Amino acid sequence: MTVRRHDPDRRSRIIDVCLDLVAEVGVAGVSHRKVAAAADVPLGSMTYHFAGMDELLREAFARFSRSVSDGFEQRMSEATDLATARAAVVEIITRDVFGTHRDLVLTHELYTLAAREPAYRELTNAWMGRSRAALERHFDPVTARMLDALIEGLTIHRALDTEAPRHETVTEAVRRITAAG
């Protein structure tokens, strides 16, 4: 008699492991077989839960982008005035959203995938939309777009530079962008 393993969190674990593998080896290095082995699930579970690698990657990156957006929205919702909104943006850049190497790598893996595959742009556009909406609680739409571009640009610098941007430099950039015209 075969004993079935009760594993109600299997699908979620597969998604988490997929993100970990993407951070470790990149999208190109991830396969169903590698995810199954790392998640300690039978290979057949992969096709049971996901139609293919594309579906798994989309769900994994959707989870990741929602998580980042949730943190972004939380930080911006705590701001009560211009000074705390500026400080929140600085914290988003320097500490929160892209504070780990894993998150930086996942962000850029998603960006690269979205640049190549239009279907993934839905994820990045939704992510940018949520970011801008959170910023627009405190800043006009044009300023929110500029701040969003600063955040995205500094993530590139943070991922590629040998030194993280200095807190003082980020603070000054946010101040300049949000200064009354």
TrEMBL record:
Keywords: DNA-binding, Transcription, Transcription regulation. Residues 8-68 form the HTH tetR-type domain. InterPro entries: Homeodomain-like_sf, HTH_TetR, Tet_transcr_reg_TetR-rel_C_sf, TetR_C_31. Gene3D superfamilies: Tetracycline Repressor, domain 2. GO terms for molecular function: DNA binding. Residues 31-50 bind DNA. Pfam families: TetR_C_31, TetR_N. It comes from the Bacteria. The keyword Thylakoid does not apply. This is DNA-binding transcriptional regulator YbjK.
